[in-house]
Each structure stands twice: as structure tokens, then as C-alpha cells.
Specification:
The protein is α+β, with helices and mostly antiparallel strands. It is about 25% helix and about 20% strand. The protein has one domain. The protein starts with 5 loop residues before the first helix and ends in a 14-residue tail after the last strand.
């Protein structure tokens, strides 16, 4: 399986330049809805809401179930399904749902440090 392109991952409305990238919220909503997640885009989305939407997008696009093992694949990012790591926790007399999501980043390299540039083409 070849690496996903940025438009395959983020949607057809994705654009980028040297200085910025844009993810269309409608694409994000469509991709998450297809996987059973609810995201309602708004003009005042919170940082937490957008972060969770992007994490869930990663879960959908890089799940173990959605990838085939291919030795020719240069970059391998795998997000483990959070349903296996769900718990109820109590903190400061309040009860919370906790979802743990494990991300594994694999790259054939001799460089011991991880950085976004490690995953550049």
C-alpha cells in the first residue's frame, strides 16, 4: 500500500503553501461521519474540538485495519483503536471518560530523534 497523499488523508479541500496549510472543515466532517464520529463545524470551534477531530481523523486514516503491510512503504504511522483503551477515572471528586490512543511512528532511518521532517518524502 502506498503512502496516502495529503488530499487522500485530509480531503479534496486541502491546500498548502510553504507557509500555511488549510483543511476544509466540511471534508473533516464528512470523513469523521463516515467512521461514525460526530463533528459539527462552526465559526468558533475550540482548540480542543479541532484537536480531537484531527486525532480521530488520524485514527480513521491510519488505523491498523485500514492499512496493509507493505515492505515498500517508507513511512508507517499506526494509530491503535481507542475502544481498547477506554476507562472511567475520578479526579478531584469528578468522574471523567478517558480514551487512550496509542500512536506508533516507524521510519527506516539511523536518526534516533523523531521530527516532522523525518516523515518528509
Amino acid at each position: 500500500m502506498a503512502e496516502k497523499t495529503v488530499t487522500e488523508f485530509f480531503g479534496a479541500g486541502f491546500t498548502q503553501t510553504n507557509n500555511a496549510f488549510t483543511i476544509a472543515k466540511a471534508d473533516l466532517q464528512t470523513k469523521l461521519a463516515a467512521a461514525g464520529y460526530t463533528y459539527t463545524p462552526g465559526a468558533t470551534d475550540t482548540a480542543e474540538e479541532l484537536f480531537v477531530a484531527l486525532v480521530l481523523l488520524g485514527l480513521v486514516e491510519f488505523s491498523e485495519a485500514s492499512r496493509a503491510i507493505d515492505p515498500a512503504t517508507r513511512n508507517v504511522v499506526v494509530v491503535h483503536d481507542p475502544t481498547f483503551n477506554y476507562s472511567i477515572v475520578s479526579e478531584n471528586s469528578r468522574v471523567y471518560s478517558r480514551h487512550d490512543i496509542e500512536v506508533r511512528l516507524l521510519k527506516e532511518t539511523s536518526v534516533p530523534m523523531m521530527s516532522p521532517d523525518t516523515y518528509a518524502n
